[in-house]
Amino acid sequence: MTAGNGNGHSNGSTSSDPAVLRAEIRRTRAELGETVQLLAAKADVKSRMKVSASHAADRFKAKASTAAARVRDTNGGRPAGQAALRANPVPVATLIGVAASAVAVILMVMRRRRR
Prior knowledge:
The chain is mostly helical. 77% of the residues lie in helices and 0% in strands.
């Protein structure tokens, strides 16, 4: 019988060659190290939440810039929309407040579901 199955992996039987054993130990340690890193990353909820919040903020910014570009296009490049926003900043502040509140609520719900 042979020590391996032809692809370098052991099939349960051991070899008496120290070099083969050392190579298999190194490979197993590397696999275990990768597994531990993946498990640690999954267990790091705080970091995952930061990444999730960052992605949500990026999506919000992209949608906001798209909406702003659409408003500029519909006005034909006239600053009338900008002047109206400067004259009455409440809708912009309200929109920002609502968006921030929505993100906060989503984060709280996600946090409670994980407990």
